[in-house]
Amino acid sequence: MLSASPVVISMGDPAGIGPEIILKAWTQRRVAGPLFACIGDIDAMRACASRLGLPAPVEITDLAAAASAFADALPVLPAPVSITAPLKPGTPDPRHAAAIKASIEAAVALCLSGEALGLVTAPIAKSVMYEAGFSFPGHTEFLADLTASHPVSGTRGPAMMLTGGGLRVVLASIHQPLADAIATLSASRIEQIARLTHQALRRDFGIAEPRLALAGLNPHAGENGSLGREEIDIINPAAARLRAEGIAITDARPPDTMFHAEARAGYDAAICLYHDQGLIPVKTLDFHGGVNITLGLPIVRTSPDHGTAFDIAGQGIARADSLLAALDAAAEIAGHRA
Fold first, then answer.
1. pTM, two decimal places
2. Can you say whether residue 314 is alpha, beta or left, with left for phi > 0 and alpha for psi between -120 and 50 degrees?
3. Which of 89, 139, 144, 252 is the most exposed place for a label (fewest CB within 10 A)?
């Protein structure tokens, strides 16, 4: 049975695969849910539906109308800014940036007002947004800014959790060169990420007593200092302070032995210190179904763990697995918070 309140999906870059995977997700969730509505350009969504041979999306004037429309057509709530420049799948255009940005802003506003259960963001291309003057490193930082004046329960983020194949990882550093991630590694950052993760596992996933595994930085977690001292000087002291707060977290573990099935059974989430340390195991376990979840915001936000895929846009071959998983995750988290 569908919930009366929908999850909202921001359109993403309309020249990418966002419109296609949103429509494909609707075909697979139109009966069993979760209920969702797209926030974006109605003409772009209808053109994509026509290419796919799917029913034309229906324009709605408010989210309350989504439930009655959902079984028959994808409900689309137009964003405040429409696409005016020509739109060709696979050909990104900075002139679309204003409509992309407005879709995200409108979707966030609906979550903050309580009209929407949560937000799933379809992929954007940062290079396209930058050309149009977008000043944020990516979606996550933009969402943090849009929600900055609203209180959160517990530690404020944002932090990035990736899920897939039964594994949850949370990153202490995200999109920065590896040398910078190592140089800026700090105990305070590890402690903040661990608190956010502990909080999210309890509130958003219903895990009463979360267990965290902390990855080391160096091979063999430093081999008692012979392969690096970060574990001794930074990582393990941070873990000790967290345990003193009541958070169940390990000392630094060798990253090469953390992610096999037997090891994963011993923790609920892994804290990873740099991007690829966390992303490689998630994508190895579930390449098509990974989900990006933002922790520490006053709203629920998830997204598919892939990009705009301009190279296949408009060909009808994009897979909606990751978006479907992101939708299900958003609805699950909203349910736990409720």
1. 0.95
2. left
3. 144
pLDDT tens for residues 30-77?
998 899 999 999 999 999 999 999 999 999 999 999 999 999 999 999
Q: Where in the chain is the domain with CATH 3.40.718.10?
A: 7-152+299-337, 159-282
Quick one: which of 125, 120, 94 has its CA closest to 107? 120
Q: What's the pLDDT tens digit per position in 302-328?
A: 999 999 999 999 999 999 999 999 999
Q: What is the CA radius of gyration of the chain?
A: 20
Interatomic CA distance for residues 77 and 129, integer angstroms: 22
Question: Which of these, 195, 246, 184, lies nearest to 217 by C-alpha position?
Answer: 184
Classify 8 as helix, strand or coil: strand
Average pLDDT over residues 262-281: 97
What is the separation of C-alpha 256 from the centre of its chain, rounded to a whole number of angstroms?
A: 25
State which H helix or E strand residue 160 sits in: strand 159-164
